[in-house]
Amino acid sequence: MSFDEDIFFEENSTPLEIASDYAFQDKSSVFLFSNENVAGTMQILENIGGANVLSVAASGDSVFDAYLAGAKNVDTFDINSFQKLVMELKMHMIKHIDYYDFLSFFFSNSNFFEQDIIAPIKGKFSQPLKHFITKYKIHGRDLFKYRAAHHPDFNPFFNLNYLKTEQNYYKLRGILPDKINFKHCDLVNVSEKFNQRYDIILLSNIFDYMFNEHFSPQTRMQRMYYEILVPLARKNLSKDNGRICFQYLWEGNSPAWTSFLDFFERTQKDNEAHTFATRSVNSAYGYNRRDVILIMRQNQKIK
Predict the structure, then answer these.
(1) Would the N or C end of the chain have less CB density within 10 A of its end CB?
(2) What is 23-303's CATH number?
(3) Is the pTM higher than 0.90?
(4) Which residues are registered as beta bridge partners of 291?
Protein backbone atom coordinates (compact mmCIF):
# COMPACT_ATOMS: atom_id res chain seq x y z
CA MET A 1 0.00 0.00 0.00
CA SER A 2 1.39 3.39 -0.90
CA PHE A 3 0.73 6.51 1.15
CA ASP A 4 1.84 10.12 0.87
CA GLU A 5 5.13 10.23 2.72
CA ASP A 6 4.94 13.56 4.54
CA ILE A 7 7.34 13.14 7.44
CA PHE A 8 5.67 14.17 10.67
CA PHE A 9 8.37 12.64 12.86
CA GLU A 10 12.12 12.75 12.55
CA GLU A 11 14.26 9.96 13.93
CA ASN A 12 15.61 12.28 16.62
CA SER A 13 12.51 14.38 17.08
CA THR A 14 11.42 15.84 20.38
CA PRO A 15 8.81 13.85 22.33
CA LEU A 16 5.26 14.02 21.07
CA GLU A 17 3.29 16.73 22.78
CA ILE A 18 -0.25 15.71 23.66
CA ALA A 19 -2.70 18.59 23.56
CA SER A 20 -4.37 19.30 26.87
CA ASP A 21 -7.37 21.14 25.47
CA TYR A 22 -10.13 20.06 23.12
CA ALA A 23 -9.39 22.44 20.25
CA PHE A 24 -8.40 20.99 16.91
CA GLN A 25 -4.70 21.51 16.22
CA ASP A 26 -1.78 19.80 14.55
CA LYS A 27 0.00 16.88 16.19
CA SER A 28 -2.53 16.69 19.00
CA SER A 29 -4.23 13.62 20.40
CA VAL A 30 -6.33 11.81 17.81
CA PHE A 31 -9.80 10.46 17.19
CA LEU A 32 -9.70 6.71 16.60
CA PHE A 33 -13.39 6.42 15.68
CA SER A 34 -16.16 8.82 14.80
CA ASN A 35 -18.72 9.67 17.46
CA GLU A 36 -21.23 10.54 14.72
CA ASN A 37 -23.79 8.26 13.15
CA VAL A 38 -21.79 7.92 9.92
CA ALA A 39 -24.06 5.19 8.60
CA GLY A 40 -27.06 7.49 9.10
CA THR A 41 -25.29 10.28 7.23
CA MET A 42 -24.66 8.02 4.25
CA GLN A 43 -28.31 6.99 4.27
CA ILE A 44 -29.70 10.54 4.17
CA LEU A 45 -27.27 11.54 1.42
CA GLU A 46 -28.53 8.76 -0.86
CA ASN A 47 -27.20 8.14 -4.36
CA ILE A 48 -23.53 8.25 -3.41
CA GLY A 49 -22.73 5.78 -6.17
CA GLY A 50 -20.12 7.33 -8.47
CA ALA A 51 -19.83 10.48 -6.34
CA ASN A 52 -16.67 12.50 -5.92
CA VAL A 53 -16.36 13.22 -2.19
CA LEU A 54 -14.24 15.53 -0.06
CA SER A 55 -14.17 14.80 3.67
CA VAL A 56 -12.34 15.85 6.79
CA ALA A 57 -10.09 12.85 7.47
CA ALA A 58 -10.67 12.54 11.23
CA SER A 59 -10.83 8.82 12.07
CA GLY A 60 -11.30 7.81 8.42
CA ASP A 61 -14.73 6.34 9.13
CA SER A 62 -16.59 8.70 6.78
CA VAL A 63 -14.05 7.85 4.09
CA PHE A 64 -14.53 4.11 4.53
CA ASP A 65 -18.33 4.30 4.64
CA ALA A 66 -18.40 6.58 1.57
CA TYR A 67 -16.38 4.06 -0.43
CA LEU A 68 -18.61 1.26 0.79
CA ALA A 69 -21.64 3.27 -0.36
CA GLY A 70 -20.17 3.48 -3.86
CA ALA A 71 -18.23 6.75 -3.94
CA LYS A 72 -15.90 6.94 -6.91
CA ASN A 73 -13.21 8.91 -5.08
CA VAL A 74 -12.74 10.37 -1.60
CA ASP A 75 -10.17 13.08 -0.91
CA THR A 76 -9.36 14.14 2.64
CA PHE A 77 -7.92 16.97 4.72
CA ASP A 78 -7.29 17.61 8.40
CA ILE A 79 -5.61 20.22 10.57
CA ASN A 80 -4.18 17.36 12.65
CA SER A 81 -1.61 15.53 10.54
CA PHE A 82 -1.71 12.59 12.96
CA GLN A 83 -5.23 11.74 11.73
CA LYS A 84 -3.63 10.71 8.46
CA LEU A 85 -1.71 8.04 10.38
CA VAL A 86 -4.89 6.74 12.02
CA MET A 87 -6.44 6.45 8.58
CA GLU A 88 -3.36 4.69 7.23
CA LEU A 89 -3.31 2.22 10.12
CA LYS A 90 -6.96 1.32 9.64
CA MET A 91 -6.50 1.03 5.86
CA HIS A 92 -3.65 -1.46 6.29
CA MET A 93 -5.70 -3.45 8.78
CA ILE A 94 -8.81 -3.53 6.58
CA LYS A 95 -6.67 -4.68 3.67
CA HIS A 96 -4.77 -7.40 5.54
CA ILE A 97 -6.17 -8.16 9.02
CA ASP A 98 -9.07 -10.42 9.93
CA TYR A 99 -12.36 -8.69 10.80
CA TYR A 100 -12.47 -10.02 14.35
CA ASP A 101 -8.84 -9.13 14.97
CA PHE A 102 -9.62 -5.58 13.81
CA LEU A 103 -12.47 -5.37 16.32
CA SER A 104 -10.33 -6.84 19.09
CA PHE A 105 -7.47 -4.41 18.40
CA PHE A 106 -9.70 -1.35 18.76
CA PHE A 107 -12.65 -2.39 20.92
CA SER A 108 -11.37 -4.99 23.37
CA ASN A 109 -9.98 -3.75 26.68
CA SER A 110 -7.64 -6.72 26.97
CA ASN A 111 -6.33 -6.51 23.39
CA PHE A 112 -6.54 -2.76 22.79
CA PHE A 113 -3.63 -1.82 20.53
CA GLU A 114 -2.16 -5.30 20.99
CA GLN A 115 1.04 -5.23 18.93
CA ASP A 116 0.91 -8.94 18.10
CA ILE A 117 -2.22 -8.32 16.00
CA ILE A 118 -0.49 -5.85 13.68
CA ALA A 119 2.97 -7.46 13.77
CA PRO A 120 2.45 -9.29 10.42
CA ILE A 121 1.77 -6.01 8.57
CA LYS A 122 4.18 -3.56 10.24
CA GLY A 123 6.49 -3.86 7.26
CA LYS A 124 3.82 -2.10 5.19
CA PHE A 125 3.65 0.92 7.52
CA SER A 126 5.10 4.28 6.52
CA GLN A 127 7.91 5.55 8.71
CA PRO A 128 5.67 8.19 10.36
CA LEU A 129 3.13 5.48 11.26
CA LYS A 130 5.86 3.31 12.78
CA HIS A 131 6.90 6.24 14.96
CA PHE A 132 3.28 6.88 15.89
CA ILE A 133 2.87 3.27 17.06
CA THR A 134 6.07 3.66 19.10
CA LYS A 135 4.70 6.83 20.70
CA TYR A 136 1.71 4.81 21.89
CA LYS A 137 4.07 2.74 24.02
CA ILE A 138 5.22 5.97 25.67
CA HIS A 139 1.99 7.92 26.01
CA GLY A 140 -0.53 5.10 26.15
CA ARG A 141 -4.17 6.03 25.82
CA ASP A 142 -3.41 9.71 26.37
CA LEU A 143 -2.48 9.65 22.68
CA PHE A 144 -6.19 9.36 21.87
CA LYS A 145 -8.81 12.02 22.31
CA TYR A 146 -11.74 9.71 21.68
CA ARG A 147 -11.69 5.93 21.42
CA ALA A 148 -15.43 5.23 21.28
CA ALA A 149 -15.16 1.80 22.89
CA HIS A 150 -15.40 3.16 26.42
CA HIS A 151 -18.65 5.05 25.98
CA PRO A 152 -21.35 2.72 27.33
CA ASP A 153 -23.86 3.59 24.61
CA PHE A 154 -21.53 3.60 21.62
CA ASN A 155 -22.25 0.84 19.13
CA PRO A 156 -19.89 0.62 16.13
CA PHE A 157 -22.15 -1.95 14.50
CA PHE A 158 -24.90 0.68 14.35
CA ASN A 159 -22.84 3.80 13.58
CA LEU A 160 -20.41 2.47 10.97
CA ASN A 161 -21.51 0.51 7.93
CA TYR A 162 -18.08 -0.98 7.26
CA LEU A 163 -18.06 -2.61 10.70
CA LYS A 164 -21.73 -3.63 10.85
CA THR A 165 -21.05 -7.04 9.36
CA GLU A 166 -18.11 -9.20 8.43
CA GLN A 167 -19.40 -9.15 4.85
CA ASN A 168 -19.26 -5.33 4.72
CA TYR A 169 -15.71 -5.32 6.07
CA TYR A 170 -14.46 -7.70 3.41
CA LYS A 171 -16.47 -5.92 0.72
CA LEU A 172 -14.66 -2.69 1.66
CA ARG A 173 -11.37 -4.55 1.45
CA GLY A 174 -12.06 -5.18 -2.22
CA ILE A 175 -13.13 -1.56 -2.86
CA LEU A 176 -10.68 0.51 -0.83
CA PRO A 177 -7.93 2.05 -2.97
CA ASP A 178 -4.27 1.70 -2.03
CA LYS A 179 -3.91 5.44 -1.60
CA ILE A 180 -6.12 8.14 -0.10
CA ASN A 181 -5.36 11.72 -1.12
CA PHE A 182 -4.69 13.73 2.05
CA LYS A 183 -3.79 17.39 2.46
CA HIS A 184 -2.69 18.83 5.76
CA CYS A 185 -4.66 22.04 6.15
CA ASP A 186 -7.22 23.96 8.14
CA LEU A 187 -10.80 24.27 6.88
CA VAL A 188 -10.08 27.93 6.03
CA ASN A 189 -7.51 26.82 3.46
CA VAL A 190 -9.35 23.88 1.91
CA SER A 191 -10.59 25.82 -1.12
CA GLU A 192 -6.98 26.85 -1.83
CA LYS A 193 -5.59 23.34 -1.48
CA PHE A 194 -8.09 21.43 -3.63
CA ASN A 195 -8.84 22.14 -7.27
CA GLN A 196 -11.48 19.51 -8.06
CA ARG A 197 -15.24 19.81 -7.78
CA TYR A 198 -17.04 17.44 -5.44
CA ASP A 199 -20.59 16.14 -5.32
CA ILE A 200 -20.44 15.86 -1.52
CA ILE A 201 -18.30 17.65 1.06
CA LEU A 202 -18.35 16.37 4.66
CA LEU A 203 -17.20 18.79 7.37
CA SER A 204 -18.34 16.97 10.53
CA ASN A 205 -18.74 19.51 13.38
CA ILE A 206 -15.77 21.76 12.60
CA PHE A 207 -18.18 24.72 12.72
CA ASP A 208 -18.28 24.29 16.52
CA TYR A 209 -14.66 25.45 16.64
CA MET A 210 -14.80 28.18 14.01
CA PHE A 211 -14.71 31.89 14.87
CA ASN A 212 -14.93 33.52 18.25
CA GLU A 213 -17.36 31.90 20.63
CA HIS A 214 -18.39 35.36 21.86
CA PHE A 215 -20.04 36.14 18.52
CA SER A 216 -23.77 35.61 18.30
CA PRO A 217 -24.93 32.42 16.50
CA GLN A 218 -26.18 34.59 13.63
CA THR A 219 -22.79 36.32 13.23
CA ARG A 220 -20.92 33.02 13.42
CA MET A 221 -23.26 31.51 10.85
CA GLN A 222 -22.80 34.46 8.49
CA ARG A 223 -19.02 34.27 8.79
CA MET A 224 -19.11 30.53 8.21
CA TYR A 225 -21.24 31.08 5.13
CA TYR A 226 -19.30 33.93 3.52
CA GLU A 227 -15.77 33.02 4.59
CA ILE A 228 -15.91 29.23 4.32
CA LEU A 229 -18.95 27.84 2.54
CA VAL A 230 -19.23 30.31 -0.35
CA PRO A 231 -15.54 30.05 -1.44
CA LEU A 232 -15.73 26.28 -1.05
CA ALA A 233 -18.90 26.12 -3.11
CA ARG A 234 -17.64 28.40 -5.85
CA LYS A 235 -14.43 26.49 -6.43
CA ASN A 236 -14.98 22.96 -5.19
CA LEU A 237 -18.68 22.06 -5.13
CA SER A 238 -20.42 20.50 -8.10
CA LYS A 239 -22.70 22.95 -9.88
CA ASP A 240 -25.23 20.16 -10.29
CA ASN A 241 -26.79 20.22 -6.81
CA GLY A 242 -23.57 19.57 -4.91
CA ARG A 243 -24.04 19.29 -1.14
CA ILE A 244 -21.99 20.33 1.88
CA CYS A 245 -22.79 18.67 5.20
CA PHE A 246 -21.37 21.57 7.20
CA GLN A 247 -22.47 20.78 10.75
CA TYR A 248 -23.28 17.68 12.78
CA LEU A 249 -25.34 18.40 15.90
CA TRP A 250 -25.62 15.86 18.71
CA GLU A 251 -29.22 15.90 19.92
CA GLY A 252 -29.63 19.05 17.87
CA ASN A 253 -32.68 21.28 18.09
CA SER A 254 -34.00 20.65 14.61
CA PRO A 255 -37.00 23.07 14.68
CA ALA A 256 -34.83 25.95 15.93
CA TRP A 257 -32.14 25.35 13.32
CA THR A 258 -34.73 24.93 10.59
CA SER A 259 -36.31 28.26 11.48
CA PHE A 260 -32.95 30.03 11.59
CA LEU A 261 -31.74 28.53 8.31
CA ASP A 262 -35.00 29.46 6.60
CA PHE A 263 -34.46 33.07 7.71
CA PHE A 264 -30.79 32.98 6.72
CA GLU A 265 -31.62 31.58 3.29
CA ARG A 266 -34.16 34.32 2.61
CA THR A 267 -31.86 37.17 3.67
CA GLN A 268 -28.66 36.31 1.80
CA LYS A 269 -27.73 38.33 -1.28
CA ASP A 270 -27.06 35.23 -3.36
CA ASN A 271 -29.80 33.06 -1.95
CA GLU A 272 -30.72 31.91 -5.46
CA ALA A 273 -27.50 29.88 -5.44
CA HIS A 274 -27.80 27.97 -2.18
CA THR A 275 -30.53 26.31 -0.18
CA PHE A 276 -30.29 24.88 3.32
CA ALA A 277 -31.81 21.85 4.95
CA THR A 278 -31.72 19.92 8.19
CA ARG A 279 -31.79 16.14 8.29
CA SER A 280 -32.33 14.06 11.39
CA VAL A 281 -30.65 10.72 12.16
CA ASN A 282 -30.64 8.38 15.13
CA SER A 283 -27.93 9.44 17.55
CA ALA A 284 -24.65 7.57 17.73
CA TYR A 285 -25.38 7.24 21.44
CA GLY A 286 -28.70 5.48 21.40
CA TYR A 287 -31.90 4.98 19.45
CA ASN A 288 -33.94 7.20 21.78
CA ARG A 289 -31.95 10.29 20.74
CA ARG A 290 -31.78 12.18 17.46
CA ASP A 291 -28.87 14.04 15.90
CA VAL A 292 -29.21 16.71 13.22
CA ILE A 293 -27.09 17.34 10.12
CA LEU A 294 -27.08 20.78 8.49
CA ILE A 295 -26.74 20.69 4.71
CA MET A 296 -26.15 23.41 2.12
CA ARG A 297 -27.12 22.50 -1.43
CA GLN A 298 -25.73 24.31 -4.44
CA ASN A 299 -28.27 24.98 -7.14
CA GLN A 300 -27.32 25.09 -10.79
CA LYS A 301 -27.70 28.88 -10.98
CA ILE A 302 -24.33 29.63 -9.42
CA LYS A 303 -21.73 30.87 -11.92
Answers:
(1) C
(2) 3.40.50.150
(3) no
(4) 281
